[in-house]
Design a protein that fits this description.
Elements lengths: L1 H18 L9 H11 L14 H19 L8 H4 L22 H25 L6
Length: about 140
């Protein structure tokens, strides 16, 4: 039943397509379309505001630089003075052990992580500049 209806609709569509002449656009159709495209104004409704303002980036970068500097100056858990000031005599059965005490990180891994972070920060800068160009007025 459905196949017969489909065949009838198909035959009707073919008959209408044969009877309809082929239309072609005018000679200056492209020029008219392009003139209207160029006439479209940029809306001033879309205003780009970053999720993290410049002050926030300054704070984040300064904290990261401080942590990297602190780590580079030879910080170790055993030599820190502020951990010794914590009064743990309240918890006599509490034994704190460092689960990462046996972990040795090779220098090449450290260099790779630092280089990766440096290259990532450069890419973020260029990508941000590239992606924010459409929002410039």
């Amino acid at each position: 039943m459905n196949k017969q209806k489909d065949k009838q609709l198909d035959q009707l569509a073919k008959k209408i397509m044969k009877d309809t002449p082929l239309e072609s656009p005018s000679i200056n159709f492209t020029d008219m379309v392009m003139s209207r495209v160029e006439a479209v104004e940029v809306s001033s409704v879309t205003i780009y505001r970053p999720l993290i303002p410049k002050g926030g980036w300054v704070i984040i970068v300064s904290i990261l630089c401080g942590l990297i500097t602190y780590a580079a100056l030879g910080y170790t858990m055993e030599s820190s003075g502020w951990l010794n000031n914590i009064n743990l005599k309240v918890f006599p059965n509490l034994e704190l052990s460092n689960p990462l005490s046996g972990l040795v990180i090779p220098k090449i891994v450290t260099y790779a992580v630092v280089l990766f972070g440096f290259m990532l920060s450069i890419q973020i800068f260029f990508l941000k500049r590239h992606l924010s160009k459409p929002f410039e007025v």
